[in-house]
Amino acid sequence: MKPLVSIIIPCYNCEKWLAETLESALAQTWKNLEIIIVDDGSTDNSLAIARSFESENIKLIHQQNRGASAARNQAFHESKGDFIQYLDADDLLASDKIERQIQLLGDSNSEFVATGEWARFYKTPSEAVFKSQPLWRNMSPIDWLVCAWEGEWMMHPGAWLVPRNIAEKAGFWNENLSLDDDGEYFCRVVLASQGVRFCQGAKVFYRSGISGSLSASKSRTAWESAFHSLELRTSYLLARENSSCTRHACATAFQRFIYNNYANNVPDLIRKAEDKVEFLGGSEIKPIGGPRFQRLAEIVGWKSAKKIQLVFNDLKQIF
C-alpha cells in the first residue's frame, strides 16, 4: 500500500488565501493524503472556508488562539501519515511536489529527510523565480546546518517532507517560540536524520509581503523568540559536534543576530549575543548593507550607521 502523507495546515486569519492553499494540497499527484487544518482561533472567515472543504480526507480542528506551533502539534497528534508535510495557510505546493519527494526517499522507513525548491511570490505564483542556493544539494546533518548558518541560507518550512519516524525522534514544535520556531524545529529534524536529500523539481511557493506576518514582526517578544531559538539551535549542534567548524558557524549566527538587531532597542539581547560570539571564538563576517550604508559605516562605524538607517526607514514610512 502506498504511504499515507499528512498535510498539516495551521491557520490564523488567512481567509484571503486558505482556499487556494487547500486547492494546491488537493491537486497533489500523490493521492494517498490526509489534510488536517487547525484553525487557531481565527477572527475572520477562515473557519467557514475551512468547513466548506471538510470531507473524508480533510479534517478540521478548531482551537482557541495558541499560536502556530501549538496548532501544528495538535495536528501532528491527530495525524496518521507515514510522511509529514507542513504547509502554511498562505503558501502553495506544486502539484507533483510530494510525489517527487516520496520517490526520492523511498518507503517511510527512510532515515533521510527531503527538501525541495522554494521561491517567493507576492501576487501570483507565476512571479516565482527558482534560483539555486547552496542548501539545494545532498548533505550530512552537520554540513547542512553549518552551510545554512555560515551563509544565512534558509529552507522554507513547506519545502520539507519528513518521514514520521524522524518527526517522532525530533519531538514536538516548541510552543514557547514564535519567530524562528521553524528554524528551531527543523534543526532538530535534521539532527534526528542521517542526512538531507534535496529533490530537484519539488517546488513550494512562498507568499511574501503580507502585512502583519510573523516573519515581519518587530516586537520585543519576536526578538526574544529569535534569540532563544538561536540559543537552542546552537546548543543542539554543539552537543552533536563541538569542533572549530561548528563553533565558527554558531559564532557567525550570533554575530549576524547582532547586526540584524542592533538598532532594535534590545541591548540586553545584543550583550548576550556578543558574549556568545566571544565564547565561541569570534566571527569575521561584516554587516550587510547597500553602498550608502557601507560608505556611512566607514565614516561613523557600523553601529551608528545602523541607527541612522533605522531612523531613515521610519521616516520613509511616515512620509
UniProtKB/TrEMBL annotation:
Residues 6-124 form the Glycosyltransferase 2-like domain. One of its GO terms (molecular function) is hexosyltransferase activity. Pfam families: Glycos_transf_2 (PF00535). The keyword Transferase applies. InterPro entries: Glyco_trans_2-like, Nucleotide-diphossugar_trans. Keywords: Transferase. The keyword Transmembrane helix does not apply. This is Glycosyl transferase 2 family protein. It comes from Lyngbya aestuarii BL J.
